[in-house]
User: What shape does this take?
Amino acid sequence: MEISVTLTQNYKQKPQGADIPFGVYTTDHMFLMNYSTDKGWHDARIVPYAPFQMDPACMVLHYAQEIFEGMKAYRDAEGKIRLFRPEENFKRMNNSCERMSIPAVDVDFCVKATKQLVELEKDWVPSAPNTSLYIRPFIFATDNHIGVHASHTYQFAIILSPVGPYYATGLAPVSIMIEEEDVRAVRGGTGFTKCGGNYAASLRAGERAEQKGFSQVLWLDGVEQKYIEEVGSMNVLFKINGTIVTPALNGSILPGITRKSLLQILRDKGYKVEERRISVDELISAAKDGSLEEAWGSGTAAVVSPIGSLYFKGETYEVSGGKIGPVTQELYDTLTGIQWGKIADPYGWSQVVC
Ligand SMILES: *Cc1c(COP(=O)(O)O)cnc(C)c1O
Assistant: This one.
């Protein structure tokens, strides 16, 4: 499929410096394509960034048939622009599509479209340390119909947003509340997909945790509310008695590309890694007897997010002395080193775009 290009007539002002707030700025252009039953995915185009026109009966507004992805472009020391494992994002997008009855996309074509858009917008990739260009591909149902069924037409889009470092003051440990009321995902549900509805359903618990002075919630499974699943919208990893332990992918956990990459790095560094069920009781007794050595979240936005304390049933348990642990720091340095092209990449994960 050819990608047509229409350039903007009105170039925007770019944010300067390192202090770019997350998700506020968007670039001059976006990538679009459309799906219809008769034509499949068609009309691939890069066009000036602009609002969508939407009929009030547009199905996504009512039934949330929508999925998205998130990745970043990084500027290295030589000024080259790099992507990190973009194929993984579009493979995961197709897993989300399948669950949500949205037609699949061509992974290689989407990577190509992403690279072409990023290259066109390369001046938008900031250069201050730990800044990047966030890439947001998404698909939503566009049939205008007030009735529950899978849409016959879809909009695919990729928009770009320059972002500053996730933690302005460095890797700050966060305080976490173990959530006992709301659940994020259930067996047979959509937990493994990046569908908008998952995030809407997670907002209330996050807000309540914030009101109580915590940064995020630790989610328990939706069946027994007994096993650890994720932290906020990140995967969660622990170091217990020298072993790295993380919840196994069970369908209600999002298969993070950061998680997968960290597990590979850890195994290659010689750590013992276990992907298995972890009960909240096991976690709390490890916190009590001191064998819980480190805990951290993982995701594209923050890379790693050290957990400084866990709150459960009226008690607060400090983790790693409330500081970032050595393994968490080592992982941050290794993964960001690969992403920004600062250290050798034995995996071929970092791809130079231009
Ligand atoms: C995106 C996401 C993650 C992290 O995935 P990455 O590919 O590492 O960015 C983890 N959990 C949830 C719920 C997510 O939405």
User: Anything to note?
Assistant: The helical segments are 59-63, 86-99, 107-120, 196-211, 257-268, 280-289, 326-339. The radius of gyration is 21 Å. The longest strand covers residues 153-163.
